Amino acid sequence: MKTKKLLFYLLAALLGGCIPVMSLHPLYNEADVIFEEKLVGNWVDDSNNIWEFKDTNEPEKTYKLIFSDDEGKKGSFVVHLAKFKDRLFLDVFPSELSWELEESNKVEWVYNTVFLIPGHSFIIIDSIEPKLKIRITDDDEMEKLLAEDPNAVKHEIVDGTLVLTASTKELQAFVLKYADDRRVFSDEIILSRKKAEAPQQPGKQDSNESTKQSGKNKSTDEKTDRAG
Length: 228
Hints:
globular; 12 strands; single chain; alpha+beta; 3-stranded mixed β-sheet; 26% helix
């Protein structure tokens, strides 16, 4: 467990120092889940991390999030978008939980190992367009809140790690009450939509090569005329 925890903190450092808070229960009930097409696509944050939201539709109204850092390390997550009153939240759960240290070199989704338990983590969405603006939870910040008010939300400290144990209904009330509190949802991450690279037209490339070759032939002819 200590070795896994060391890996946990290492990966948290790669995420910018934030260790997301885990919850035993999801934030949503099926009736709360919505689907927003505008969220689908590739998004890039200021650290050049890529957040790719895919429409899986299996089950319905479900996204698959592929997180890739600038070194190529990745994480794969199942994501549900929930709306409570006028606020949007993401419930994030790892798509795979096979992260035994003995096979760490074989782990494809490295960032899935951040989830030491089969738990949920929450993200609040402040806006989707023109930029995707989100805020994630940070266990250090939330511990400050719980130190002041231990009854703010049901929780346990498991091997030094904060784990929320509140029910889905209690979690919803908690995130709505503290939606704008930086001790729960920390500093904002701003993502820009990654533009797809336009494929080069085959004819255009051939035309450029012809132009270059024509220029070379003309230069050779001029040199021959001057020599004559």
